Amino acid sequence: MNSSAYLITKLHRLLAEDARVAESAVQVAIRGRVVVLSGEVRSAEHRERMEHVVRQQLPALRIRNDILVSPSLPRGR
User: Which residue segment(s) compose the domain that 8 sits in?
Assistant: First the structure.
């Protein structure tokens, strides 16, 4: 597993296990020195929290947060 794949796997796990967001439907990609987050979450708070979790883990990389807020999503998604 290369370092990008390892980081992506680690970030997916952290985001899925964080009780404040518990989102597993968000995609994570690393493009050069940019982490790209995409997908949908229920609230702006979840969107911001996910970016915060990634920023704590990878402070040297830029983050592009393309996560959409969709309040009508079912819980747990």
Answer: 3-69
